[in-house]
């Protein structure tokens, strides 16, 4: 950045830049108010066009579509050129495209102004095409950088200026891997795990549904942890602060609670089969047998050790049956109450947490797709995602309806 020279018409410092791309394509550098493409300005150079007052030129970025990228009505760039060298001419460098420009930091018609105080982080965008002509960018990204005046009044300022190297291809692949793993975990595995539990009657007899449920949930937790680790490392290496947005904070919470949910699943209480309950079943059979026996038959049999509440032998067979039923009910109530309390408490934690996590997962995926499209200036695939989720939900509801009506159909 150079300060204006004495007696110069321009009162704004100027940004001098040189962009080099190892390949043959158009290249661009933009400045943004918020780090996203809409409402930004960019310098774009097209190698397939001759150097002129408008090439490289200033462009207004109205949106993400090429039709809304329009040439700025006032072209004020100076010392601006775009050149290409070819590998056959210079094997050491290879194919290369170089954009050079000088631009005023502040202009009356600027939508975005840059600040050169050495502290403020100006938000820049960069992009290059897949070739010299196509309007859509092959790669794109963004970065933040402070600007300082390195030449003031024609004199060089020590420690001024900077060489910025933007390496985002590796970072982009990490973000993409993060998104794919998270989408597989929360857009596929967890919904299928819930379906395997809700539609267990469609599985073969036994614990096939339970093994499927556990396997899918365990894989989703593993994928979630790997996904979290990838994006945590990538953000840290790029100098971004952690857990500053809702997406970041919710991702951290989901990673923790999904692991807790898996552990809680392995602590699932056993089925309600105990010795007490088996004893009750045996007493049910005995009670039913006595109830179908005529009083005369009971009286004719020898009844031993049957006593009433006073400890004496009972001469009333119906009273014996009544007392037996009351004792049976008491044992049954005590046994069921003991096991049901444990199971109910477990289900009150496990099921609501599972549905909450999958709901958060759906929100995280759509939000991640939105952020990724803005970060790398790509296509927003949220519409495709919602259609996919909608189809899965309709299929699930259809199977659920079939399972609930299946017993009635058999009757």
Strand order of the largest sheet: 5-4-3-2-8-9
Mean pLDDT: 78
CATH class of the largest domain: Mainly Alpha
Discrete helix count: 7
Would you tell me which CATH topology of the largest domain applies?
A: Four Helix Bundle (Hemerythrin (Met), subunit A)
Total domain modules: 2
Poorly predicted parts: 153-161, 165-169, 273-314, 319-324, 331-337
Classify the beta-strand content into a percent band.
15-25%
Radius of gyration: 37 Å
Could you say which overall geometry the principal axes of the C-alpha atoms support? elongated
Provide structural commentary.
This protein has 411 residues and is an alpha+beta fold. The chain has two domains: 14-166, Sandwich (Immunoglobulin-like); 171-273 and 332-410, Four Helix Bundle (Hemerythrin (Met), subunit A) (Up-down Bundle). Helices cover 47% and strands 16% of the residues. The protein contains seven helices and eleven strands. It has helices at 169-198, 208-237, 246-266, 275-291, 295-300, 317-375, 382-410; strands at 14-21, 27-32, 40-45, 57-61, 69-71, 78-85, 96-104, 122-129, 137-145, 151-152, 155-156. The chain has a six-stranded antiparallel β-sheet, with no helix packed on it. A three-stranded antiparallel β-sheet has the order 1-7-6, with no helix packed on it. It has a two-stranded antiparallel ribbon with strand order 10-11. The radius of gyration is 37 Å and the shape is elongated.
């Amino acid at each position: 950045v150079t300060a204006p020279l004495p007696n110069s018409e321009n009162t704004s410092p100027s940004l001098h830049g040189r962009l080099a791309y190892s390949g043959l394509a158009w290249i661009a550098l933009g400045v943004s108010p918020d780090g996203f493409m809409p409402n930004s300005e960019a310098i774009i150079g097209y190698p397939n066009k001759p150097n002129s007052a408008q090439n490289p030129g200033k462009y207004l970025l109205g949106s993400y579509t090429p039709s809304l990228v329009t040439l700025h009505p006032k072209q004020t760039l100076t010392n601006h050129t775009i050149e290409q060298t070819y590998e056959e001419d210079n094997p050491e460098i290879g194919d290369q495209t170089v954009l050079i420009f000088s631009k005023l930091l502040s202009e009356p018609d600027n939508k975005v102004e840059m600040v050169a105080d050495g502290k403020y982080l100006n938000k820049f965008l960069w992009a290059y095409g897949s070739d010299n002509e196509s309007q859509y960018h092959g790669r794109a990204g963004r970065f933040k950088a402070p600007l300082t005046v390195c030449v003031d009044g024609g004199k060089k300022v020590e420690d001024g200026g900077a060489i910025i190297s933007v390496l985002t291809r590796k970072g982009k692949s990490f973000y993409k891997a993060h998104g794919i793993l998270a989408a597989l975990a929360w857009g596929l595995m967890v919904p299928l795990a819930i379906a395997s539990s809700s539609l267990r009657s469609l599985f073969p007899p036994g614990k096939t549904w339970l093994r499927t449920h556990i396997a899918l949930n365990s894989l989703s937790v593993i994928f979630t942890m790997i996904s979290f680790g990838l994006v945590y490392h990538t953000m840290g290496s790029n100098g971004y602060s952690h857990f500053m947005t809702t997406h970041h904070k919710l991702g951290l919470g989901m990673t923790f609670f999904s692991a807790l949910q898996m552990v809680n699943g392995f602590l699932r209480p056993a089925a309600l089969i105990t010795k007490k309950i088996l004893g009750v079943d045996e007493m049910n059979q005995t009670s039913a047998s006595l109830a179908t026996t005529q009083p005369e038959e009971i009286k004719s049999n020898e009844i031993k050790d049957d006593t009433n509440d006073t400890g004496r032998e009972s001469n009333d067979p119906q009273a014996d049956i009544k007392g037996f039923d009351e004792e049976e009910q008491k044992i049954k109530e005590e046994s069921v109450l003991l096991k049901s309390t444990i199971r109910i408490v477990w289900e009150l934690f496990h099921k609501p947490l599972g549905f909450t996590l999958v709901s958060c997962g759906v929100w995280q995926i759509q939000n991640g797709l939105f952020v990724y499209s803005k970060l790398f200036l790509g296509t927003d695939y949220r519409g495709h995602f919602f259609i996919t989720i909608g189809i899965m939900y309709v299929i699930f509801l259809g199977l659920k309806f079939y399972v609930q009506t299946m017993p009635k159909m058999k009757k």
